[in-house]
Amino acid sequence: MKLLVAIKRTIDYNVKVRVNADNTDVELTNVKMAMNPFCEIAVEEAVRIKESGVADEIVVVSAGPKQTQETLRTALAMGADRGIHIETEMELQPLGVAKILKAVSESEEPGLVILGKQAIDDDSNQTGQMLAALLDWPQATFASNIVLSDQGAEVTREVDGGLETISINLPAVVTTDLRLNEPRYASLPNIMKAKKKPIEVKSPEDLDVDIKPRLIVLKVEEPAKRESGVMVESVAELISKLQNEAKVI
Ligand code: AMP
């Protein structure tokens, strides 16, 4: 079985994100970028499935500008076999990405497409769901466990009240939650080997998809600054402050 993993290049999760000067976006100039953490979990899961012998090929796909290839190389160093880069400088929104991934899924014919549950930059949590709808394939979102066979998959999902296990037919779309696994670090020899793995470059036009943005961002703002706290000497002082200053009791 072939696995297709969709990965996104986002601001590194360790970076303190700042809003740009004209409040139209977050600042991206000279900011460290990395693979979206939920996508790392998706790549790790694909590698584990291949290691277990159920899958024999892992294809990673990412859409974005030229530098996106660095992120694809990271996935190749983690154990993916080949990459597909859909190169575009255009702003990408979940529907556009889902259309790209649909076209790639139709030509690659994977048994399973694995995505992150959300990208930590736009927090959309939409692409996997839209992809499953466009393909008319079953979907299992927020996966914390995947048991795969040639016929189907049993996926445990993180839901509000606990865990839900569902059975789906293949081909299907799965999105990863935080507790699915702990991604490995790529070893130096694997980073060297990844340099020789193939990355095919295509444009959205090659796939014949319309990725025009459908949403306009009106404004981006920093959250309100939090006031610093004060230490109180006693419970009596705390109650007095809550009654007389904060006026909440
Ligand atoms: P989102 O719906 O934007 O929160 O993203 C959810 C998931 O969709 C990500 O974790 C990726 O697996 C996938 N995805 C989003 N944007 C891209 C992209 N530009 N290229 C490839 N996959 C993407």
Characterization of the model:
It is globular and about 65 Å long. It has helices at residues 37-51, 68-78, 94-108, 127-135, 188-194, 204-207, 235-244, and strands at residues 2-6, 9-11, 33-35, 57-64, 82-87, 112-116, 139-148, 152-159, 162-169, 172-176, 199-202. The strands form 2 sheets. It has a 9-stranded mixed beta sheet with strand order 9-8-7-10-6-1-4-5-11, sandwiched between helices. Strands 2-3 form a two-stranded antiparallel sheet. The chain has a single domain (2-244), classed as HUPs (Rossmann fold). Helix 2 crosses helix 5 and helix 3 packs across helix 4 (127-135). With 249 residues, the chain is an alpha/beta fold. Adenosine monophosphate is lined by residues 6-8, 36, 38-39, 42, 61-64, 92, 94, 97, 115-116, 118-119, 122, 124-128.
